[in-house]
Design a protein that fits this description.
Chain lengths: ~425, ~270
């Protein structure tokens, strides 16, 4: 129904001599967006919308917030029923699930390769939304990982911040034993019913539950095996504080009970929320595994924007994402400063917020460091069934602690995963 | 009074006490938590805090409370009244009118109870989309109105309805709809009350179907709003607790107001 207005304005603009309408009046539709978290994605999208409407006053935005599981449920129902007019113009999808939607519903999302220059984004973010060489999304927040550590505990144990840079996990465990001997603090909090730690380690060595072609790869997956071995070593060394569930895990470091946290950059706000710990924290690259292809960079979580292919506002939606998310460096400063959001546009690091030294981290330029690591995150294929395999991995993690050989654990995960995927 | 009877009574009360605690604790926890900050809630604080006003203020800034309540109330009340009207007529009909096909049709109706809603969701969604009802409250109500469970409930209760009353009314020259309206409904009022409580609760708490059908912020019901608040990366649990309290109150209120009739209705009494 908006086609006519867009078209007539286009024609009018062309007739009036392009200059009159060139900058503003090409679009006049309402762009509907679905996303979750009122304080994060919704607030950030409102900021992006405000920036776009400042330049394109005829465009309006309808940003609808649903819970994450609800967005997925609605998307799945609308796509499965083929009722495309019930879909929004732009939808937020978690990165781990991207391939599932792109491959299960071919043609449902707009291909953006020709419209947007993806060379400016972190390569791993672009890779996860690519199918057969075509890119289907706008990379959004990153979960680039870091090793957050308590400088005071480390120093009491006889180490310096330099000793924490570019560690291996074996060295990390040795330091952990020292830290416990000298300070009585555990090295890290660990939830043995959550596979997040395994996913971080696995991706840091360029591995995933699936190979580059998306086929299930469990037995014979050297990165996954090394990740499980590392978790087993940590469990056996006893340098961890057990946590049941997310809130308890967060509690391990907010209360000062552990010396390090290895997770995505989005935890920064939670770490900094403990004002009394200011100056005591540092951030280093995460330790690396002892396998081929291992690196000190990885990712946990993150999501991206997708434009639906049948949207009546498709061109407008793409133009909006391109103008703000692919070009507006200042926008990225604002969402970092106000919401703690680290985007995937590499050029964002040249802005003011990214250059600032943070007194909470003893004057370290943490955002510069994170954006260094962002480029290095290995690209992997998240495949169609990441969540299903994750369930299988989680089910067998506790047996690591009971001393079951890693090869047996891999075998058990493999057979459960095979069963769940079929 | 002998010892064994004393022991039996004590153990009965102990059991009931534990059961009552288990059912009431979540409510207690909800009320206590609404007075605490999110951080205190996460760390498991059991005492009353002083963040109640802040939580309420935050909830009211984040959520358009009057609109959301109006949406929920409108959907729940209208859907409940329509469900009871249609389903009680059906239950009455199934019991009163005898025919060969009656029990076969009735079995078919009951069979629909076995189909999980998830299986109906996509076809229903397509129907709503074709009729242009997506993102309307009508779309939420329509599929709930003919409720197999409530039809079953009314038919079972109607078995206790004295047919002599209907025969007498017929002799007096009343038409069928008059019998239903002037004789059946007043006699069955506790059944109606119980059905009202059940159907209202179901509709007020309805989540999956409204979630699928509703598409914009201004049509959302309270269940969707609370779900959205709770799924943030760092939910403010104090605000979520205010939301859950407000979402619970109407059903509690309806239940307490109609408690006596509800119990009578469940026991199947006819006055």
């Amino acid at each position: 129904m908006y086609h006519r207005t867009i078209l007539s304005r286009f024609v009018a603009g062309a007739l009036a001599g392009a200059s009159l309408f060139a900058s503003t009046a090409a679009f006049a539709g309402e762009v509907t967006i679905w996303c979750w978290d009122p304080n994060f994605n919704v607030a950030i999208m409102k900021e992006a919308a405000a920036r776009y409407t400042a330049q394109h006053p005829d465009t309006t935005f309808n940003i609808v917030d649903f819970a994450k599981a609800d967005v997925e449920q609605k998307l799945q129902t609308a796509l499965a029923s083929g009722t495309t007019d019930a879909l929004p113009d732009i939808v937020l999808i978690e990165d781990y699930g991207a391939q599932k939607y792109l491959q299960s519903f071919p043609g449902a999302f707009a291909e953006l390769s020709s419209k947007i220059d993806f060379s400016g984004f972190a390569p791993y973010k672009v890779q996860l939304m690519t199918v057969d060489g075509a890119v289907y999304g706008m990379p959004f927040d990153s979960g680039v990982t870091g090793l957050y550590y308590r400088k005071d505990y480390i120093e009491q144990a006889g180490f310096k911040p330099e000793d924490m840079q570019n560690l291996t996990w074996d060295r990390f465990i040795e330091i952990g034993k020292q830290v416990e001997a000298k300070t009585g603090k555990k090295m890290l909090g660990l939830d043995v019913n959550d596979a997040g730690f395994i996913r971080i380690l696995m991706q840091s060595a360029g591995g995933w539950y699936f190979d580059k072609d998306g086929r299930l790869s469990i037995e014979g997956n050297s990165a996954l095996k090394a990740a499980l071995e590392t978790e087993q070593k940590i469990l056996q060394a006893g340098i961890f504080k057990p946590a049941a569930g997310w809130t308890e895990w967060v509690g391990t470091f907010t209360t000062g009970d552990v010396a390090t946290v290895t997770t995505g950059v989005w935890i920064t706000g939670t770490v900094k929320a403990q004002a009394d710990q200011s100056g005591k924290w540092g951030v280093a690259p995460i330790p690396k595994l002892n396998v081929e292809g291992a690196s000190n960079a990885s990712n946990l979580g993150g999501s991206s924007w997708y434009v639906t292919a049948n949207s009546s506002e498709k061109d407008e939606a793409i133009d909006f994402l391109n103008e703000v998310y692919a070009k507006d460096i200042d926008f990225y400063q604002k969402i970092l400063a106000e919401r703690g959001a680290v985007g995937s546009l590499l050029a964002a690091r040249t802005g003011k917020a990214y250059s600032e030294a943070d007194p909470f981290f003893g004057g370290e330029k943490v955002w510069q460091n994170f954006s260094d690591w962002l480029v290095k995150v290995p690209s992997v294929n998240y495949g169609v069934f990441t969540n299903e395999v994750d369930t299988a991995v989680t089910a067998h993690l506790p047996s690591l602690g009971q001393g079951t050989p890693v090869d047996d654990v891999l075998k058990a995960i493999d057979s459960q995963a095979q069963g769940q995927i079929q | 009074m002998n010892v064994s009877r004393f022991l039996t009574t004590t153990s009965q009360y102990a059991f009931l006490g534990v059961a009552a605690f288990l059912s009431l604790f979540p409510f207690l926890w909800m009320v206590i938590s609404s007075t605490n900050t999110s951080i205190d809630i996460i760390s498991g604080r059991m005492g009353l805090g002083d963040a109640f006003r802040t939580n309420v203020a935050n909830f009211f800034t984040l959520v358009d409370v009057p609109l959301v309540f109006w949406n929920s109330a409108k959907v729940a009340v209208l859907a409940t009244l329509l469900t009871i009207l249609v389903s009680s007529l059906a239950g009455y009909g199934f019991e009163m009118f005898k025919s060969k096909a009656r029990d076969r049709i009735y079995s078919l109706v009951l069979l629909t109870l076995m189909v999980p809603f998830a299986a109906l969701m996509i076809p229903l969604f397509m129907m709503m989309a074709k009729t242009g009802l997506i993102n309307t409250h009508v779309a939420i109500m329509l599929p709930t109105i003919a409720s197999a469970f409530i039809i079953f409930y009314f038919r079972q209760s109607t078995k206790a309805f004295p047919t002599e009353l209907r025969d007498a009314a017929k002799v007096d020259g009343l038409k069928e709809w008059q019998i239903f309206l002037y004789i059946y409904v007043p006699v069955m009022r506790s059944t109606y009350a119980a059905a009202f409580v059940i159907v209202f609760m179901v509709n007020w708490n309805n989540y999956l179907w409204p979630l699928i059908v509703l598409q914009s912020n201004d049509t959302k019901t309270i269940t969707l709003v609370v779900s959205s608040l709770a799924s943030a990366y760092y939910p403010d649990y104090g605000v979520v607790m205010i939301g859950t309290i407000l979402a619970t109150l109407p059903t509690l209120l309806v239940f307490f107001v109609m408690q006596r009739q509800f119990v009578q209705g469940m026991l199947g009494s006819v006055k």
